[in-house]
Structures are given as C-alpha cells and as structure tokens.
Design goal:
- The complex is a heterodimer of chains A (about 350) and B (about 240).
- With about 350 residues, chain A is mainly α.
- Chain A has one domain: ABC transporter involved in vitamin B12 uptake, BtuC, CATH 1.10.3470.
- Helices cover about 70% and strands about 0% of the residues of chain A.
- Chain A is built from 15 helices and two strands.
- In chain A, a hairpin with a 2-residue loop joins strand 1 and strand 2.
- Chain B is α/β, with parallel strands linked by helices and about 240 residues long.
- Chain B has a single domain, classed as Rossmann fold (3-Layer(aba) Sandwich).
- Chain B is about 35% helix and about 25% strand.
- Chain B is built from nine helices and ten strands.
- In chain B, helix 3 runs parallel beside helix 5.
- The chains are: A mainly alpha (about 350), B alpha/beta (about 240).
- Chains A and B meet through helix 9 and helix 10 of A and helix 2 and helix 3 of B.
- Chain A: InterPro entries: ABC_transp_permease, LivM-like.
- Chain A: Keywords: Cell membrane, Membrane, Transmembrane, Transmembrane helix.
- Chain A: This is Branched-chain amino acid ABC transporter permease.
C-alpha cells in the first residue's frame, strides 16, 4: 500500500523541521533578549516570510515572474478586516459601505475563513487565464491584476477607505500565531514542492514541451499552484490585518512587491529554504540600513542621513544576485541537502 | 496498432507532409527514414500531438488521436523522445523518470523501470542532474523516461544521434531488450542507415513530405524511387 507521503515529501518534512527550529530559535532569542518594539519587526518579517513562501510555490517552482501577490494579500486583509471589525466601529469607519458591509461582525476564525475563500475564488478566476498564458504574458497580466486591485482599493473609498486607515480591527493575533502560521507555511510549501504536482510544475519550468510529452497537463499544474499561492498570500494578509488593527491600501502595492521578490531572488527561487533565508537576510539587512539611514554616530564619526538607502539596497541585491548568482544563495538545494551533504559534488537535490 | 491515414501538414505555403499513410503494428520496430527535410520529425510531431494535421487521421487502436493535445496523447500510450534532448535539467535523473512514471498508462509492471535503469546503466547516476551525464547517458535517459509512460507506441527521434559505433550497437541491443521486456511498437527515425536497417522489421521512406515506399526493408531498398531519392545507386545497406 502506498504511504500518505512519498519519500521526497518525508525528506521535505525533515527539512521543514530544521527550518522550524531556526524560526523557533529566532522567536526564543526575542523572548529572552529582545526589546518590545522588536516584536513588531519580527511579526512583519514572518508575514513577509509567508508571502515569499507563497511566491516560491508558483513563481519558484514554475519559474514565472509574477507581481500580483500584494493584491491578493490586500484582498484578504480587507475581507478579514471588514468581517471581523465590530459593527459599531464600522458605523464610524465605513458609514457609506454598501450591501450591509457595516452592519455585521464575525468571529475572527469565521472572518479568516471568509477572507481565504474570497481570495481563493478570485485566485481561481484569475487562474483561469493565468494558467493558459506563457511566461511574459503571465508577468504582464500579474502586474495588471496588481494595478486593477490597487485602483479599486483607492477609488472605492466607501468600502476600503483608499489611502486612509481602516481602523478598529480587533488585534487578535500575536507573535505566537504568526510563528505557527510560518511553520505551517514552510511544511505546506515543502510538501507541495515534493509532491507529484510540484514535481510536474518544476518539470514544466525546465522544459514545457518535454513535460507535455511526458503527460503533464501544464494548465492544470499552473492552475493549482497559482490558487495555492494566493492562499499563502491571503494567510499573510489576514495575519497582517489581525495584528496591526489598522490597514490602508498603500502597503499592498509595488514597494511591497519589490521587497518580497528581492527576498525570493536572494534566497533562490527554486527552494523553500531559499525563501526562508532570503527573507531573513533582507529583513536583517533592512534593519541595519534603516539604522544607518538615520545618520548614527559610528566610532565617534557622525554619519550623514541617507534616506532612501533601503530602496538602493534592494536594487543592489536584485542586480547583484542576478548578475553573479542567478539561482540565488540556495539554487536547487534545500536545507537537508546541505546538512546531509552527498559525497559527490555534482549531486544535486531532487 | 498505430495507423496514419492520408495525413498532410502545411505551414503557410510549405507542404511539410503530403498525404502520407502507413501502419505500425503491435510490437514491431518500424523505421522511418528519408533525407533532411523529408518530413520525418514533422510526422513524429503530428503523431505525438504537438502538431495537428491539416488533413487525414491518426488512429491508435481505432481511436482518433490527431486532435488530442500532447499530454493526452502521451497518457493514451504514445511516448516519444526528441531529436534535440528535452530533459529536465534541474531535476535528478530519478526525478526525470518519475515525472513520466506518474502518468503511466499501465502500472502493472512495477519493476520495468528498475530493470531498464540497470540494463541502460543509469543506476549509478540516478542522483545526478542530466547536465552531469555523458551525451550517451542523456540519450538513454530520454528513452527510459519515455518508457516510464508504459507506452504502447514508442517514437524515437534519432536516438543514435551523436553516438559512436559501439554505443549505437549497444542501443540496438537495448532496444531489442526493451521490446522484449515491454512489448510495444517502436517507430524509429535515424540517419544511421546501418543501424536503422538492422533494427527495423518494417520501413517507411519519405521524401519532400511524401511517402515513397513502405514495407519490408529488403523490398523497400529495392524500390527505384527510394534508390533515386535517398539511397543513391551506389549505396549498399
């Protein structure tokens, strides 16, 4: 009888456990030695990590460049926020909301499920055409989705309040919740990567003609991976709204897309471990840069204020990695491939 | 088993295949030869679903397949290799094979692929990426990957290309073993006439998109049109 998991998925679980330990060590270090303000930084890093892992599912396994993830994150964040915010608060924050959106409230779990369902349905609808497009078209359409959704956020102020804050969202999530979600995301992404479907998608990424000749239904593989990735983005959006208590349209746009894509590129598109390492390294780098931007005194020397340095860093990371290490830090490798390094240097991961 | 009936294919004004018919019967090795530009690879692309004929029918066991997409054709039992290798470069040899095996039309012979891996000498390189293999190993991997679909018809597009004499002879022995181990029809294209004549039980010759002759090799090679267009009067095979 076939087991529930194939041998590569079992190996993936070992790798997931190693990454989970890394995440828990970081959280533990914060609990033991961290400052209170660092909880927010850590939380944001973990939300970003869920997004980058979601990017790896479609963009990494399929080798497509897509830029609509901030839109799906925003859709879920707003859906969860509108559902969970008490009606009394919405009477103030969304007085002109249509369809009775300001007249009800839901339990956070129900709100999260509704947000996941809405995002998944929109993911499936957009997937109907995304899965039938080829590389450049996928990129262009993903940008169009991002712009369309952002425009709706900005112009339907009666529902989304545009660039103004939608406030009063109950802050029901903490660091523990997002840590659990990150670990779940890592496990889910590794199981997907090593599944038959993940393998087929990676084969398509290498050679679509060859994959079709081997029986791979390219449209189906893309469709499932696309919808799955939107659910990761939705999870991140819900976690974002449930922690901050206030959201606006502005964060769900190009700057955020640029940041998360840089994280995946640095780590390596084809590896979940790469997504984790890329996110952690850029998050750490950005904190150092933000400190440098303020013009600190280093060794008695007062540095000038260097606003905009973080954008410069992301640009340098993308250009540098693309030029000198196009497969990112990890390439095809996962963490267990490094820990249990094979004897032959030519051997690669699955 | 596989019947090609009056198949034509044109690209704009160019007639790549013109009213070609032939039959590949169960478990035979059927050679498809012709000079460059004869339409051989176009024919393989038509049979495997990568091209749709402008006219004619292609039948696999009486079922029309000419309008099916390639992945459906593959799952129906027609597997192919490519003239230019199309391996999955970022997957190991083992996982290259698994991609096909997950779509196997018939999983009743679970040891087939392990046996083929041993026979073709790929056991020691299962964990390597295709780029780390020799060219001969890459060619063998493409054949095993196609075999993993458990095909009823195997289309081999120049499997001996780039191989030396010893490797070609080994390929010949391996094809006979393969057909014995997994009874299926094999449609074989190659430029190595010695190889194809020794391997094929029946032969179809194409030239300029048209069928010149089809039948037993000894009969086809005596066909005047075949000699004039392809073999040449001084050619011996």
């Amino acid at each position: 009888m076939r087991g529930l998991l194939n041998p590569d998925q079992k190996r993936g679980l070992i790798g997931s456990a190693m990454l989970a330990v890394l995440i828990l060590v970081i959280v533990g270090a914060y609990v033991l030695w961290g400052e209170t303000y660092q909880a927010r930084i850590l939380y944001a890093t973990f939300v970003n990590l869920i997004v980058v892992i979601g990017l790896q599912v479609f963009m990494g396994n399929g080798n497509y460049a897509t830029f609509s993830h901030a839109a799906f994150m925003g859709i879920a964040a707003y859906a969860a926020a509108i559902c969970v915010t008490p009606a009394t608060v919405k009477a103030l924050s969304l007085p002109d909301a249509p369809w009775g959106l300001n007249a009800f409230e839901m339990h956070p779990v129900s709100a999260a499920l509704v947000a996941l369902a809405i995002t998944g349905i929109i993911g499936a609808l957009t997937g109907l055409f995304m899965s039938r497009l080829t590389n450049v078209s996928i990129t262009i359409v993903s940008i169009a989705i991002l712009v369309i959704v952002h425009s709706i956020f900005l112009h339907r102020t009666d529902i989304f309040k545009g660039n103004q804050a939608l406030f009063g969202i109950p802050r029901v999530f903490g660091l523990g919740h997002v840590t659990a979600l990150v670990i779940l995301a890592i496990v889910a992404a590794r199981l997907f990567r090593e599944s038959r479907l993940g393998l087929r998608l990676r084969a398509v990424a290498d050679d679509e003609v060859g994959a079709r000749a081997m029986g791979v239904n390219v449209v189906r593989a893309r469709m499932i991976a696309w919808v799955a990735s939107t659910l990761f983005f939705a999870t991140a959006g819900i976690a974002y709204a449930f922690y901050l208590g206030t959201i606006s349209a502005r964060p769900f746009y190009f700057n955020y897309v640029f940041l998360t894509v840089a994280m995946l590129i640095l780590g390596g598109l084809r590896s979940v471990t790469g997504a984790v390492f890329g996110t952690l390294l850029i998050s750490l780098g950005l904190e150092i840069i933000r400190w440098l931007e303020t013009g600190p005194t280093l060794g008695g020397v007062k540095l000038p204020e260097m606003l905009g340095l973080s954008g410069l860093l992301l640009g340098i990371v993308i250009v540098g990695v693309m030029a000198f290490r196009p497969h990112g830090l990890m390439g095809n490798r996962e963490i267990e491939d490094i820990v249990f390094r094979p004897k032959k240097t030519t051997e690669i991961s699955k | 088993m596989l019947r090609v009936e009056g198949v034509s294919k044109s690209f704009g004004g160019v007639q790549a295949v013109d009213d070609v018919s032939f039959t590949v019967t169960d478990t035979e090795i059927h050679g498809l030869i012709g000079p460059n530009g004869a339409g051989k690879t176009t024919m393989i692309n038509l049979i495997s679903g990568f091209l749709r004929p402008t006219q004619g029918r292609i039948l696999l066991e009486d079922r029309e397949i000419q309008n099916m997409p390639p992945e459906t054709v593959a799952r129906s039992g027609i597997a192919r290799t490519f003239q230019n290798l199309r391996l999955f470069r970022n997957l190991t040899v083992r996982r290259n094979i698994e991609v096909a095996e997950s779509h196997a039309a018939d999983a009743s012979d679970p040891t087939l692929i392990d046996d083929a891996i041993d026979r073709f000498g790929l056991g020691p390189v299962l964990g390597l990426a295709p780029d780390a293999l020799s060219y001969g190993h890459m060619r063998r991997l493409e054949i095993i990957r196609a075999l993993a679909l458990r095909p009823r018809v195997l289309l081999l597009d120049e499997p001996a290309a780039g191989m030396n004499t010893e490797e070609t002879e080994e390929l010949f022995r391996n094809l006979l073993w393969l057909r014995e181990r997994h009874p299926c029809a094999i449609l074989l294209i190659d430029h190595d006439l010695k190889f194809i004549m020794s391997a094929s039980e029946t032969l179809t010759v194409m030239n300029m998109g048209r069928l010149l002759a089809s039948g037993l090799p000894q009969d086809v090679t005596k066909n005047e049109e075949v000699i004039r267009a392809y073999l040449g009067h001084g050619e011996t095979v």
